[in-house]
Amino acid sequence: MMPYPVPGDFRVPYDDLHVVARNLVRPECVLAFDDGSLIAAHGSGGYSLVSSTGDVTHYVERTGGDRRYVPNGIALAPDGRVLFADLGSRYGGIFSIDRQGGLATVVDAIDGVALPPSNFVMVDEHDLLWLTVSTRNVPRSRSWNHKVRDGFIAVIGRNDSRILADDLGYTNEIAFTADRRWVYVNETYAQRISRFPLNGTADQPQLGPRETVAQLYGADLPDGLAFDSHGGLWVTCIASNKVLLVRPDGDVQTVVDDGDPVHIERITKGVRDGTLEHADMQTPGNSRLGNVSSIAFGGPDMCTAYLGCLLDDCIRSFRSPVPGLPLPHRNRRIR
Description:
Blueprint: E1 18-21, E2 30-32, E3 38-42, E4 46-50, E5 56-60, E6 71-76, E7 82-86, E8 94-97, E9 103-107, E10 109-110, E11 113-114, E12 120-123, E13 129-133, E14 151-156, E15 161-168, E16 171-176, E17 182-187, E18 192-200, E19 205-207, E20 211-215, E21 220-227, E22 233-239, E23 242-246, E24 252-257, H1 261-273, E25 292-298, E26 304-309, E27 315-319
Antiparallel strand pairs: 1-27, 2-3, 3-4, 4-5, 6-7, 7-8, 8-9, 10-11, 12-13, 13-14, 14-15, 16-17, 17-18, 18-19, 18-20, 21-22, 22-23, 23-24, 25-26, 26-27
């Protein structure tokens, strides 16, 4: 086996981060495409398109109803529909939105049970829709601790909808290994990165027993994740405002760190004691990263890492020493 090529001391200072686009609204999730464009979640009910030249266009729902949609994870389906996971205050689900702001429900229930606020969505190369729900608790803050384990991973096929893994500690983003043998998942408030063997068939997947890949501590709350082409897993952490790299041998190194020590101490105690409240997570303290929440590899050589966030108005980027693993949506186009 060739040695992993990222140096163990590789770090990116905050001042080396490049601002790619501004005037965004809660760009929690970022997707990168092979034409140089990006799309990001728009917290007011839609998505933002960033062209290869940096121009920003917003597409926001215009249904005029009483429900307030909060796009969290976003995806681009093979047919060009932009999808988002709705992290609303009480209800969730997966919805599509067109360029005129029209919404359509993709899925809002599994086995007849309405989906709680939903975190993440992706459509794989086999046209299966994968989604995560962080918790069944309303409000979500009841699960911002080490004890509650009621999140799940589900898959939506042509003929059925199934929960594949349950009892997770605040399920967040998922990612597949290049050989599709494993599904990795961030469990944010359990503070761990887990993986499941991917079994079954392409159209009827199953997940085997959970394994812990890395246990995190302090205020490292894993949110976004992406593989590079050499098997390294890059992870964003809200609260501590770090980008971590889980090397193929399991070692964890810090690549970006812009945490506020006072805020980190407060969040660490709150997670441990189960006393976190909504307001505690609505500030990054004095961090300039705005609760970094997403990482996506793009650019012509796949060596540009784009960072989304919860509490700032911009997407930042840095250059990686290795290319990211291309994802199925990379060559798709918005309808």
